[in-house]
Amino acid sequence: MQEILKTVTQAFGVSGNEEDIREIITTEIKKYVDEIKVDAMGNLIAVKKGKKKKILFAAHMDEIGVIATFIDDKGFIRFSNLGGVSAFNSLAQRVRFKNGTMGCINVEEKLESMKDLRLGKMYIDIGCTSKEEAEKYVKVGDTASFTGDFHVQGDFAISKAMDDRSGCAVLIELIKTMPKTDNEIYFVFTTQEELGLRGAKTASFGIMPDCAIAIDVTRTGDTPECNSMEVKLGKGPAIKVKDSSYIAHPQIRRTLQDLAQENGIPYTLELLERGGSDPGAMQTSGTGIPCGGISIPCRYVHTPCEMVSIQDLNNCVKLAGLFMKHYK
Amino acid sequence: MILIKELTELNGVSGNENEVREYIKSKINGLCDSIEVDTIGNIIAYKKGSSGRLKVMLSAHMDEVGFMVSGYMEKGFLKFKTVGGIDSRILPGKRVVIGKKRLKGVIGAKPLHQQSPEERERIAKIKDLYIDIGAETKEEAEKLAPLGEFVAFDSDYVELGNDCIKAKALDDRVGCAVLMEVLKYKFEFDLYACFTVQEEVGLRGAQVAAFKIMPDVALVLEGTTCADVPEVKPFDFSTELGNGAALTLVDRTCYSDRKLVQFLYDTAVKNGIKVQFKQTTTGGNDAGQIQRTGNGVKTASISVPCRYIHSPVSVMSRSDFECVERLTLAALNEMNKDKDFTKNVAAV
């Protein structure tokens, strides 16, 4: 798990620019599945054939990042966010463009108060002295991701893009270790989730499964003075009850809870106040899809130091495996 | 530019696009294999191609921002609501027309010398404004301007300087004009030119049009924001008037298909057509819905920069419009002759 988690979290794949991460995942999984394809939105769809129920498992490949919108005469780059990028978390961070160019994010010095900090007053410095020079490295429309090394300490792993590469890692492990089942399983690595659950919409329409489960990260309620939340790092997968984009289908939620209890997998229930996930788009796709979620507890979501527990990830793999085997 | 003059002088506030629809239908009649108006009111003009290799959808919305009569005040002043995104600060003193009969009215507000110091500081909100149609009683007003009647800006088409046009509803009659021009040509692929409704209130028409067509590729023709005006820094310009056709990289509703954007950019360069990237990521258009239809559609937008968009005095450059028209045709011709387009750009 550690190895694959490192590979996928460190790969480049800002929303709408998922080519690299898609390639990596394809290489990892292709010999374990019967069919593999990419749709118009760039979703990677892998199928393990079966005769009974069609079950879709989704994890999004994209990560939040920034896009260059303007390069000034001195070579400073103005940018906009792709997904939920906080100005405060971005200040003084490093970003890496797809071609490897590194940049530092900083803010116009005239800023009177930190309360006025906005991305519109910030810029990326790539160490160039003119527009012409800067354009050799970065063009308008190029995207960059925040940097954040992968590091493991005890059971906890820290990296950029745990949201939702840790979900991708869970799906990859699931594919490699999946139990025998008569159900037909669709593993979908979706695109543009951070821009509004966009890839999931078209992928689920194309598949029209009998049910869908998203593996995505969720916030936790275990840090100093945080909002109260049942979910805690290291206390097992969080079974989705609701987030701001959907309410989990009660039958799916119950099945997941029963399976966890019967098999001694620790879990918590997730009621996420703010934030959505792919089922928000999938559940109303076509004629409608019953959806649920197995969530990965993650501290500091949408920062370069997102933190998850390896043990939780392993338990997510277990629970998802049980679900695909027992779902009727 | 006669086409833009005629198109912008029609009224088609979202949900009330009939005047525009009838005009466009009459002009494209005979150019297409079929012209259909769907249940929500979109025109879907279809031209069958000789190869059937590819389904291409072009989309431009017929509707424009405006208002709706929402109630009556003493002495027959009308209360109103906005339809689509309008900055209330620009409204006091503007001329409007109400309903099909184009009943004239003006938007009024409490006179400055009657306002309290706080009121003067405060930005005028819609609820502080009213429409004056010269009625004498509430009853008279109700008869002349029934509840729910649409209200459009009253603004002529005027040519400014050597290259500019001022009009209302350039967003998106410019797109409609491009589609009407394109329909004069024949292609190998199947072409669906969609004149959509209710874009300004949430990209509604395009959603069902795209679902019906299920195209391989879609191009959205638009009027877009342009803020190259005093007090704005260059990185916030969005687009610049006179710098040619604007390509959207990403906005609030759509991350344009990157290969398709590159294809459009290369096509512009190859044909010597001025082209610019829209350099802000705000706003949104039909592309957002079209892209996410069915199994997904490769989608991009080509726009004409419009200063003071969503106001009765939008200003655009004629040469930019020509760039958009030329680029659209050049791109379609390129798709037509290049068999590799399907493989390299449109393939999933």
TrEMBL record, chain A:
InterPro entries: Peptidase_M42, Peptidase_M42_aminopept, Peptidase_M42_dom2
Any one Gene Ontology molecular-function term assigned to this protein's record: aminopeptidase activity
Residues that hold Zn(2+) 2 according to the record: 163, 194, 302
Keywords assigned by UniProt, alphabetized: Aminopeptidase, Hydrolase, Metal-binding, Protease
GO terms classed as biological process: proteolysis
List of catalytic residues: 193 (proton acceptor)
Cofactor note (record): Binds 2 divalent metal cations per subunit.
Residues that hold Zn(2+) 1 according to the record: 60, 163, 216
Gene3D superfamilies in alphabetical order: Peptidase M42, domain 2, Zn peptidases
Cofactor: a divalent metal cation
SUPFAM superfamilies named among the record's database cross-references: Aminopeptidase/glucanase lid domain (SSF101821), Zn-dependent exopeptidases (SSF53187)
Pfam family, one: Peptidase_M42
PANTHER family in UniProt: AMINOPEPTIDASE, ENDOGLUCANASE
Family to which the UniProt record says this protein belongs: Belongs to the peptidase M42 family.
Protein name: Aminopeptidase
Origin organism lineage: Bacteria, Bacillati, Bacillota, Clostridia, Eubacteriales
UniProtKB/TrEMBL annotation, chain B:
InterPro entries from the UniProt entry: Peptidase_M42, Peptidase_M42_aminopept, Peptidase_M42_dom2
Active-site residues annotated for this sequence: 199
Domain of life, per lineage: Bacteria
GO MF entries: aminopeptidase activity; metal ion binding
Binding-site list for Zn(2+) 2: 171, 200, 310
Keyword Hydrolase among record annotations: yes
Residue ranges of the TM segments: none
Organism: Ruminiclostridium papyrosolvens C7
Keyword tags: Aminopeptidase, Hydrolase, Metal-binding, Protease
Binding site residues for Zn(2+) 1: 61, 171, 222
GO aspect biological process, one term: proteolysis
Signal peptide interval: none
Cofactor: binding comment: Binds 2 divalent metal cations per subunit.
Pfam family, one: Peptidase_M42
Cofactor: a divalent metal cation
UniProt record similarity statement: Belongs to the peptidase M42 family.
Name under which the protein is recorded: Aminopeptidase
